[in-house]
Amino acid sequence: MKTVFERTEKKYLITVSQKNELLSLISDKTKSDEYGKSNVNSIYYDTDDYRLIRNSIDKPVYKEKLRLRSYSVPKGDSTVFLELKKKYKGVVYKRRKTLKYDDAQKYLKFHILPDNSQIMREIDWTMNFYKTLKPKMFIGYDRLAYVGIDDKNLRITFDFNLRFRTDNLSLDSGNYGENIIGSNYCIMEIKSLNAMPLWLCVALDKLKIYPSSFSKYGTAYQIATKRNSEQNGGISCA
User: What is the largest CA-CA distance in the chain?
Assistant: First the structure.
């Protein structure tokens, strides 16, 4: 399984109707990937003052996120992925460490390293640099994934039923949460190593689909912060 990623990513906030029309237009150029439809669950780690996501919202040249991800509600011996995701000048660099859920918990809670691999050292450096990284947000969604038939490095994903919570912050607590966007919308991501193929540009232009800066964690953070501010008489607890 791939553990190091370097690629460009473009995000789009689109309607379900646009998603269906686009898939119809590009059906001869793409196919469902090996996972097809999946459920993606992530716990995002941040400082007590949400330094990572607040920095990300400001759209800097460089930003990073640390998360623990699973594709089901895990048990102790389930496979999960500890991921360090960095973005610099529009290029995404991701380091992914595959672990058993129990081992991931031992590291994140008690700092017991599972091994001394390069990726684990990079993740551990980030944990030590920020010092107070803790689980701060659960983000879950359902995903449909497609790949290019002729270009295997082209990947198109559609994420829907986006949800979040700020309590019970463990993957084994379930994949429930509060809605992030309306049920008529989804987030499309186009991921590639090279320039987007012309046929895809033509299809996007025909349907008037344009890039949109959208962060699942960032949007959920803003929803939670606004609610907390209203509940505390205009004072945010973030």
Answer: 56
Q: Are 54 and 67 in contact (CB under 8 A)?
A: no
User: How many angstroms from the chain centroid is the CA of residue 93?
Assistant: 13
The tens-digit pLDDT sequence of the chain (238 residues) is: 666 767 788 999 999 999 999 999 999 999 999 887 999 999 999 999 999 999 999 988 899 999 999 999 999 999 999 999 999 888 889 999 999 999 999 999 999 999 999 999 999 999 999 998 999 999 999 999 999 999 989 999 999 999 999 999 999 999 999 999 999 999 999 999 888 999 999 999 999 999 998 999 999 999 999 988 888 864 344 4
Residue 123 sits at φ, ψ, to 5 deg, of -65, -45
pTM of the entire structure? 0.92
Which amino acid type is present at position 60? P
